[in-house]
Write a structure and sequence with these properties.
Shape of chain A: globular
Number of helices of chain A: 13
Family (chains A, B): Belongs to the class-V pyridoxal-phosphate-dependent aminotransferase family.
Radius of gyration of chain A: 21 Å
CATH architecture of the largest domain in chain A: 3-Layer(aba) Sandwich
Cofactor (chains A, B): pyridoxal 5'-phosphate
Oligomer: homodimer
Strand content of chain A: 15-25%
Number of domains of chain A: 2
InterPro entries (chains A, B): Aminotrans_V_dom (IPR000192), Aminotrans_V_PyrdxlP_BS (IPR020578), PyrdxlP-dep_Trfase (IPR015424), PyrdxlP-dep_Trfase_major (IPR015421), PyrdxlP-dep_Trfase_small (IPR015422), SP_NH2Trfase/AEP_transaminase (IPR024169)
Largest sheet of chain A: 7 strands, mixed
Protein name (chains A, B): Alanine--glyoxylate aminotransferase
Keywords (chains A, B): Aminotransferase, Pyridoxal phosphate, Transferase
């Protein structure tokens, strides 16, 4: 067995995105102990910077020590008690995964369906909550990574509040890429991933919980089914002050990387990062349209960082993606689920959202498609 | 906010251990996609090398994308069905954590207690299994990180088999540090961590499951309560062949690091690594005894990689550890639970198990204790 030297790719799929060399090099800094005072200081900085990225004052804002799927499970396993009715909006793969999470936590799932590529319909949510007065939680995906559609989180949260429901929001692909305001919009529980618009390596899941959400966790009648993800325990390690109770060994070096990516986000400015994603999308869109390639998602609800486009007729999906990967070291994403074979997903996330990538991707696609 | 530059410590606590520069630098290699053919090839190598490290042919041998506690939960959440009776051996912190896991999975826990610092008693296990004919699983910790005691996994597994029980074994601190033979000893489910004797960064949990264990998972009457840790789904991503079904985004760079640490283990040879841990322990022991510092655990069941020693009378635990950390950048471990304030845990794990560290640790301790 030999050391593994990965090829140098350009990552323009649905994530991971290209990771800035500063972040990779932060990851390789010397490991220290997970209870080292120097490490505890760094944890506090990560929390502070995450709060800013989420636009929240929630004290319970921290990265779960595992990928986005575990962040999702942290929200559902802690907030859903057996028998709780949860309204789940499904307009792509990740809404379906939310349903799985509700059921495995013993909850009762009421589904609101919208077509793939469409946003969650506030009208349907309103109707469903009105018809289910005993619903306790509304769950939806802000930025559907499987389709590239952005739902109106602010309006959906307003509706949920009106019906006395907590909200669980998937922001895996939105954090750092498009407008997201946890406090202003009244989101109660939110999870994201590090490998999308934060441009960090995959493996951590930033989450944030409102006091209202934490009250529900604190007052559960049954223990959270997961020991590893139980917020009552995790809070003891990620809590305030210098005293940290050992819970699990934090992924030290991965947290160095997240810290560095958040420093870079601060240096750029959150709103500037949102604007950059939008402006790169505009450039990519112009080039794709010139090639006659059309978008799946309507412009008003389109995520700039996740561009789902129809594969031109007669084009062999897998062959094109292989040629891009093998000849140009360029990764673009395949379609998931209903969109498999029909759609490409071109990511412009974090460090990948730059003009060099846009120009390169357009030229490589032109070559391979003989346009 | 500034970039975080950690102090350079010598890590001789209960883990993380010192990480070799080769492993840190592997971690900083360019991120590629989690479905990239090059990545899938690397995953297969990780599996092959982990099988060797565990001394098993189990096809289902792979790293869980989260720390050791999540590896523990993977075993219990998949193997314990509601109502299942599980005999749990408790001789330290991690046996207690196993009990928590059993109960949260809906199992019924029967406890076998041994004193902290002692090995699990095969006689008590035999008695308990004889008295609980309906028990389905025996769970115990091979190497108790909270005390430094090693239990006789081979004998315990024999007893379990005689009573038709599956076994779940915690090998977080033993893998790579002391003899461990999954197939020969007949272990059904085992989990470890990367940050101990593998000398890798924390964040992943290597696990392995026998066919008998997987049969129980496949034939469950209820779904595994965790979506993230459900082996039925994880197998689709870590399974055989080139086809991998997307489950969650793997922590790419952390896996580079694990790959490199396993390459290094192969280069050294597994049995050589075991012997090195033993020989470093002998050197440390000689020095400590010269200073009049005594061991908590009897020599015949003592883990060479985790040295629990009694804090000399009249010595201020926290003050000594602080001085070691602040003056010499040397981390040794505090006592956990019953041992808090009474015991130090000096780790000699992986890259930390070398003569430089032994000599340095002894000299620094002598200075601080004025011996």
């Amino acid at each position: 067995m030999q050391s593994f030297n990965p090829p140098v790719r350009t990552l323009m799929g649905p994530g991971p995105s290209d990771v800035h060399p500063r972040i990779l090099s932060a990851m390789a800094r010397p490991t220290i102990g997970h209870l080292d005072p120097a490490f505890v200081g760094m944890m506090d900085e990560v929390k502070t910077m995450l709060k800013h990225a989420f636009q929240t004052e929630n004290a319970m804002t921290m990265p779960v020590s595992a990928p986005g799927s575990a962040g999702m499970e942290t929200c559902f396993a802690n907030l859903v008690e057996p028998g709780d009715k949860v309204v789940v909006c499904i307009n792509g793969v990740f809404g379906m995964r939310m349903k799985e999470n509700v059921e495995r936590a013993g909850g009762v799932c009421v589904e609101v369906h919208d077509d793939w590529g469409k946003a969650v319909s506030p009208e349907k949510v309103e109707e469903t909550l009105a018809a289910n007065a005993d619903a306790k939680i509304l769950a939806f995906v802000h930025a559907e990574t499987s389709t590239g559609a952005c739902s109106d989180a602010k309006t959906l949260c307003e509706i949920a509040r009106k019906h006395d429901c907590l909200t669980i929001v998937d922001a895996v692909t939105s954090l750092g890429g498009v407008e997201l305001r946890v406090d202003e919009w009244g989101i109660d529980a939110i999870y994201s991933g590090t490998q999308k618009c934060l441009s960090c390596t995959p493996g951590l899941s930033p989450v944030s919980f409102s006091e209202k959400a934490l009250d529900k966790v604190r007052n559960r009648k049954t223990k959270v089914q997961s020991w590893f993800l139980d917020l009552n325990l995790v809070m003891g390690y990620w809590g305030q002050g210098a005293k940290r109770a050992y819970h699990h060994t934090a992924p030290i070096n991965a947290l160095y990387a997240l810290h560095e990516s958040l420093v870079m986000l601060h240096e750029e400015g959150l709103e500037n990062a949102w604007a950059r994603h939008k402006s790169m999308h505009d450039k990519l869109k112009a080039g794709l349209e010139e090639m006659g390639i059309g978008f799946v998602v309507d412009e008003d609800i389109r995520l700039p960082q996740l561009n789902s486009v129809w594969i031109p007729e007669g084009v062999d999906d897998a062959a094109v993606r292989s040629e891009l990967l093998n000849t140009y070291n360029l990764e673009i994403g395949a379609g998931l689920g209903d969109f498999a074979g029909k759609v490409w997903r071109i990511g412009l996330m974090g460090f990948s959202a730059k003009e060099e990538n846009v120009l390169f991707c357009l030229s490589a696609l032109k070559k391979v498609l003989n346009k």
